[in-house]
Design goal:
Helix content: 55-70%
Largest sheet: none
Order of helices and strands: HHHHHH
Radius of gyration: 16 Å
Structural class: mainly alpha
Shape: elongated
Distance between the termini: 40 Å
């Protein structure tokens, strides 16, 4: 049965994990199991990920999409961080990039 998209919003892998845990394994069969396996392997943070996204948006000025992608991967260096900001990297000074890494370090 096709599903209808009601709303589209970027969320972190830990948020996906929480939603799937609330739904339970009976919610989606094989797709559910594969998705749970993926989020269990690649989730780098716990529930505090949403708070980190909010801080990156408010304190650094990242878009919500950029912040979610950065939190999902948790880069450790400026060189690792740059690919997430390809469309707007010129807008961010080295100091702002360092601030992003400092915020990420607070949640590691």
């Amino acid at each position: 049965m096709p599903r209808k998209v009601i709303e589209e919003k970027p969320i972190t892998i830990p948020e996906v994990k929480k939603i799937l845990e609330e739904l339970g394994p009976g919610a989606g069969g094989d797709f559910f199991i594969r998705t749970m396996d993926y989020v269990a392997k690649f989730s780098k943070l716990g529930p505090e990920a949403a708070e980190l996204v909010k801080r990156l948006v408010e304190e650094v000025g990242l878009s919500e999409w950029e912040a979610v992608q950065i939190v999902n991967c948790m880069p450790e260096t400026i060189d690792e961080l740059r690919p997430f900001l390809t469309g707007s990297v010129a807008l961010y000074s080295r100091e702002k990039l360092k601030k992003v890494l400092d915020l990420l370090d607070q949640y590691r």
